[in-house]
Amino acid sequence: MSYGVAAALQAAVYQQIYTDPAIAALVGDAIYDAVPPGTTPATYVSLGPEDVSDASDQTGDGAAHDFVVSVVTNEAGFQSAKEIAAAISDALVDAPLVLARGHLVGLWFLKARARRVEKADTRRIDLTFRARVEG
């Protein structure tokens, strides 16, 4: 197993989300690898935590990356956040991402968690995906 493909995977996921027209129509360019300090837009998308485990097999080294993409909004209700989350899922599931290092075997949706945070003034949906990589 190697963690060597992690940065390339993250860059490809970010690029896929950032350049997707449906996501851009919903959040513009408010898509962050790291949320900037200060005032944030009312609605934004952020790349989040990642867990990686060995997925090597007889053919070579590999890893399974479980990573989170979050939708955060202070809009009332979950409707707009769910529309954005659906667009993200559509953009990522089975996407043919090209990595600068290694090779993507597959990309799947694992789970989502929608909740109110900060005394219910903010809604957040955390989408967890699994990417299987080699190299």
Automatic annotation (TrEMBL):
<dbReference type="InterPro" id="IPR053745">
    <property type="entry name" value="Viral_Tail_Comp_sf"/>
</dbReference>
<protein>
    <recommendedName>
        <fullName>DUF3168 domain-containing protein</fullName>
    </recommendedName>
</protein>
<dbReference type="Pfam" id="PF11367">
    <property type="entry name" value="Tail_completion_gp17"/>
</dbReference>
<dbReference type="InterPro" id="IPR021508">
    <property type="entry name" value="Gp17-like"/>
</dbReference>
